What we know:
single chain, alpha+beta, two-stranded antiparallel sheet, 15 helices
Amino acid sequence: MFVRAALLCSLFLTVSCARHPEKSAFIDTMVAKHKFAEDELEEVFDQVKINDEVLKKMAAPAEGMPWHKYRKIFLTEARIKEGAAFWRQHAETLTQVSEQYGVAPEIIVAILGVETLYGRRTGSYRVIDALSTLAFNYPPRSRYFTGELEQFLLLCREEKVNPLQPTGSYAGAMGMPQFMPSSFRSFAADFDRDGNRDLWHDPKDAIASVANYFRAHGWVKNQPVAVRVFAKNAGYKTLLNDKFKAYLRISELESGRVEFSRPLPLDSKVNLLALEQEHGDELWAVLDNFYVITRYNHSSLYAMAVYQLSQALLNYQLPSPYE
């Protein structure tokens, strides 16, 4: 359905944003609700370009892949090695942030690794173009992206940034942690206290912002994220569901003939996740902290990629700089 909607939307791309009917209604709302100057917004949107490539990318997200293909994107030797180097370079900040926010440093580094290769690939789309394209030309999620466009303009006003300048992903996510505008306004942190929440160029701010986001969404310090499990037969399939929130008791999985690779507290709540491999399912019991990762990106594949990258980083050893 989303592919068909995106293709239909592309038929209207000959209409410039300057003459787009939804644009006028949006400007009226921003003027009435937030006291923006109408002539200034008109001038901005006269320079906005509707981007067909944004719609094509929205129609084919990587999260549509099976796990055995998706995993190969993020669990590479190069990404692991670069992440370990990033961790070593920013070890002091990561330690301070982890102590302050209670979020494991390997998770913070893994998020930055999955999102932007530790800040090297923050996106080349002009944010206002991406958000306007999706707000005005992508009906399946027009309401969401209209809200993010509103948040983006508010953010630019607060941060004293020209809205035509910031760049990001095709979906309008920004900086090293790829925050959407609403998340940027709510969770971005000025960790070095220089008066600027710079998520594009300041690793300290980016590291603290990820931790702040996770703490706000319920991260529990020192709680496991996921545990590998093994099924004795196909009975486990009755326990599978499309929920993110952990709600099953340990005894329920065990009654489904599922064995844990390591013990968990008996009062733990878990969910059973089956990841598609080339020759059958790979099974995991995932806990509340796994759910928190899915608040960053609502995909079990994404959350597992972050978790597995974090474990690879934790176990990777770089030579000491003093050797």
